[in-house]
Fold this sequence. Notes:
two-stranded antiparallel sheet, 5-stranded mixed β-barrel, alpha+beta, binds zinc ion, 34% strand, CATH 2.40.50.140
Amino acid sequence: xxxxxxxxxxxxxxxxxxxxxxxxxxxxxxxCPGCNKGAQKNYNERFLCLCGxxxxxxxxxxxxxxxxxxxxxxxxxxxxxxxxxVLGCYATxxxxxxxxxxxxxxxxxxxxxxxxxxxxxxxADQEKMKTQRYKNFNVYSIEEAKQEEVANSSS
Length: 155
Ligand SMILES: [Zn+2]
């Protein structure tokens, strides 16, 4: 563990189920692997990113969802590795799927999510929260909860 920095964003631990209700989302966006910012490019297209990186457009997993627990729910957005854990596959796989295959995969994921508990660390992105349309917490880390941990917390 590193020491807290003054600028460090406060993170919160929560536990609950991941719920995905928006099925029209793409579950990835095309990004620069150097800075993770979105890029209006085709898969594998080479471009010079504003971050200075000689970039190759790469799909990055992204899920808009909710975390539900006994007390309520929060809207979250998760990216990259965290989103891929929930999707059970890499973003590169999602992009290779046909529309039909993708829908089927997502349907399976959503079914499995109904029985899974997760332990997450979330935080508010202050800059983005200032814009009113953005009401999601960002997921910093996510891990599937073991059954005994779920049992302990609910007693
Ligand atoms: Zn970049």
